[in-house]
Design a protein that fits this description.
The complex is a heterodimer of chains A (about 180) and B (about 240). In chain A, about 50% of the residues lie in helices and about 10% in strands. In chain A, helix 1 packs across helix 3 and helix 5 crosses helix 7. Chain A folds into two domains: about 5-75, Arc Repressor Mutant, subunit A; about 90-170, Winged helix-like DNA-binding domain superfamily/Winged helix DNA-binding domain (Arc Repressor Mutant, subunit A). Chain A starts with a helix and ends with a helix. Chain A contains nine helices and four strands, in the order αααββααααββαα. The relative contact order of chain A is 0.10. Among the domains of chain B are: about 10-75 and about 85-100, no CATH class; about 175-235, Arc Repressor Mutant, subunit A (Orthogonal Bundle), CATH 1.10.10.580. Chain B has helices spanning about 15-25, 35-50, 55-75, 90-115, 145-155, 175-185, 190-195, 200-215; strands at about 190, 220-225, 235. A three-stranded antiparallel beta sheet of chain B has the order 1-3-2. In chain B, helix 1 crosses helix 4 and helix 2 (about 35-50) runs antiparallel to helix 3. The chains are: A alpha+beta (about 180), B mainly alpha (about 240). At the A-B interface, strand 1, strand 2, helix 5, helix 8 and helix 9 of A face helix 1, helix 3 and helix 4 of B.
Chain lengths: ~180, ~240
């Protein structure tokens, strides 16, 4: 297969794939004996072409794979396709809850509440309903509390490739020294 | 309130958020929080919270109690014999505040990501982008949570009327205190587990345990235990009658 054909295959796979297309899945689709180029390389070429020909979309690396994404300026039009509820912003309470789960997963509800100092039941429910969190088993200890973790949709929602790409959590020492500086 | 600001409690995500606000507003040192004045300010907010949603108010009241406990402990003189390791009663609160602040900051970073990401739409539809609710949609990728919700919903159809049978069990606290007293008169030490093995009713077991607590409080007995969840050894106390 020459490079043009390979690019076409990748495009077809991106259109049809029910989830972000991973390198591994791509290789599996190519079958044995086909020594294609690495997926990342082809994606890069495609993205350059899309940019040059001013397409409305590009290929984004998200949740460990690749998928087609529309450019931001078409939001106004696309919005008309969907129900309003889907794009409601997360509340501050939900964002705090999500942040705690993201950095400390798997966590129990009690873990979350002891950090936030408030009951977090309804935030958890919202996040589960929106599929940004999922339940992954139960704790071994007494009470067998449910354990929460972030989902693939969570990565999609925030445009992250993996949980390793989370915004950096500041160390307590940093916050303390900053507090001291402010006082001086 | 000492300050003229009137602040809506709804603004705050909880008691820790409010405390961080007060610390910032009054430029307080988080290492050296003036407990008396912050407690006073905090309480005036809690008074307002009581008129708000009850479940949030509970969290605020709990923190108010914690603050007052710290305040009381600050009044106690530290042991001057120089045990340096006595912890400042405010340390735990400071750690809680700092830990909460870390995640509050992180949540702001997530809000930024959310804002950047919102205008982009994926070719693979995201679950939150549903055009219409489709009652005939086939369930795919069912998660434990979905199943739990469904089951909870279904269970509602099966709610049996609740009936209780109340049997009067004749056991009182003073009876069990008397019973333990009798045992202790004949032997210097008794095993709590052995005492319990005489009873079959859960209620009697509970009342007997209450009797132990009551007698312990009155110094009628002493209780020893070699490790957690182990048997209790009961012996006569200073005020044993």
């Amino acid at each position: 297969m020459n490079k043009t054909e390979l690019k076409q295959v990748v495009e077809a796979l991106l259109i049809a794939s029910p989830e972000p297309l991973t390198e591994k899945r791509y290789q599996a689709c190519m079958g044995e004996g086909e020594t294609g180029l690495p997926l990342a390389e082809l994606i890069e070429v495609l993205n350059k072409e899309y940019a040059k020909s001013e397409r409305a979309f590009f290929i984004k690396e998200v949740a460990g794979g690749y998928q087609l994404v529309s450019h931001a300026q078409y939001e106004t039009y696309i919005k008309g396709l969907f129900s309003k509820a889907g794009k409601l912003r997360l509340s501050q309470a939900a964002l705090e809850t999500l942040a705690i789960v993201a950095y400390r997963q798997p966590v129990t509800r009690t873990d979350i509440e002891s950090i936030r100092g408030v009951s977090s039941d309804s935030s958890l429910r919202t996040l589960l309903d929106r599929k940004l969190l999922e339940i992954r088993g139960r704790e071994d200890g007494p009470g067998r509390a449910l354990l929460y973790r972030t989902s693939t949709e969570f990565l999609q929602y925030f445009g992250l490739n993996s949980v390793k790409d989370l915004p950096k959590l500041r160390e307590v020492e940093d916050i303390l020294s900053e507090e001291q500086d402010e006082l001086v | 309130m000492t300050q003229a600001h009137r602040i809506d409690l709804e603004m705050f995500e909880g008691p820790l958020d409010l405390l961080l606000f007060l610390i910032k507003r009054d430029e307080l040192n988080i290492y050296d929080i003036p407990i008396a004045s912050i407690t006073r300010d905090f309480l005036s907010y809690v008074k307002m919270a009581k008129e708000l949603r009850l479940h949030t108010a509970g969290d605020f009241v709990l923190m108010a109690a914690t603050l007052m406990k710290i305040k009381a402990r600050m009044l106690l003189p530290l042991d001057s014999d120089g045990d340096d390791e006595i912890e400042d009663p405010r340390t735990e609160l400071m750690n809680m505040l700092l830990e909460y602040k870390r995640y509050k900051e992180a949540s702001e970073a997530f809000a930024t990501l959310e804002r950047d990401q919102r205008p982009h739409y994926y070719h693979i539809p995201a679950p939150w982008n549903e055009t219409q609710e489709d009652p005939t949609a086939i369930l795919e990728d069912v998660k434990l949570y979905d199943i739990m919700l469904t089951f909870q919903y279904l269970l509602k159809n099966y709610e049996d009327p609740v009936t209780h049978t109340v049997a009067v069990e004749e056991v009182t606290l003073s009876e069990q205190v008397g019973f333990l007293n009798t045992l202790l008169r004949s032997s210097a030490k008794i095993s709590f587990l052995e005492v319990l093995s005489r009873f079959e009713s859960r209620l009697v077991v509970v009342v007997t345990f209450l009797a132990v607590l009551e007698m312990l409080r009155n110094h009628q007995i002493k209780v020893r235990q070699s490790e957690l969840f182990d048997d209790l050894l009961i012996s006569r106390g200073q005020k044993f009658e």
